[in-house]
Amino acid sequence: MLILGIESSCDETAASICEDFRNIRSSVISTQIEEHKKYGGVVPEIASRRHCENILEVTKQALKEADVTLADLDGIAVTYAPGLIGALLVGVNFAKSLAFAAEKPLIPVHHISGHIAANYICHKELEPPYLCIVASGAHSHLIEVLSYTEFRVIGRTRDDAAGECFDKCARAMGFPYPGGVHIDRHAQNGDALAFKLPHPAVAGNEFDFSFSGLKTSVINMLHRADQKGEIINKDNLSASIQRTISEIITEKTMGAAEQYGYKKIALAGGVSANSGVRAALSKACDERGFEFYMPELSLCGDNAAMIACQGSYNFAAGITADESLNAVATMPIDSIKF
Predict the structure, then answer these.
(1) Given pLDDT bands bounded at 50, 70 and 90, which one contains residue 138?
(2) Among candidates 305, 263, 277, 303, which has minimal Cα distance to 209?
């Protein structure tokens, strides 16, 4: 089975060919990071325009590298939710047109399920059920992966996501966009115990996340130091921020695993590239005898390989859409209607 995956939910235009669920024949990504860097974050209008300019050539390149044609495909998968609405619309409308012209099934893919599926590409032995922590710039979710196409959310962020906290703290520290990677680099040379930062509590659900208080604490600390003419060691602050976020994610994940009876844990999303988060979860799982899975660094960020992979499982489960498929900016993964 050959599935073309298309991803355009934020600032990466990507296309990929997946063969037989987990084998990636090609993966092409056109990133806009350098353009958005000057603005300190993604500008939705610019992102949408660049997707319009890049999506055809990216798809052509993916087909060429995989040495396949449209006629060889069994289906066309596309991210339809959640994400920047203008960016999503470019990918969805392109995929609908391509599927119609090539007379191929159209396969809708939820972006978060795509991130989860990145682990299938890297770990051929991984099968549901298991518990997955999905952490990125827009999402922090604890998800029961019941099957390849069934999910139950048991914890989610109430405000800022983990990646958003990394990026906003980094901006306050004067690091360029995207900031998370700079905090990770500076943390390698810092004292992670130099600053005591808050672990915000969340009422109502012990597995929900809140990173807004942590972000605010760091920003206020930097502002006070600036007003007093004091210099804060950025290596130490970076290490302390990374330690705190890693601890919060690990504590919630391990608590949920023990309460819900999971001994198989996966990590996914852009924050899965963070060395502190990877190390903390890996250590916690080792101590408890849990199996732990995380994607290769190249598959942590947005890419179409994960969409093609998840699209393959959706297609096998009979999940397809017609020409009425529309992009949706916000949609919980456990409310998918297909």
Answers:
(1) confident
(2) 277
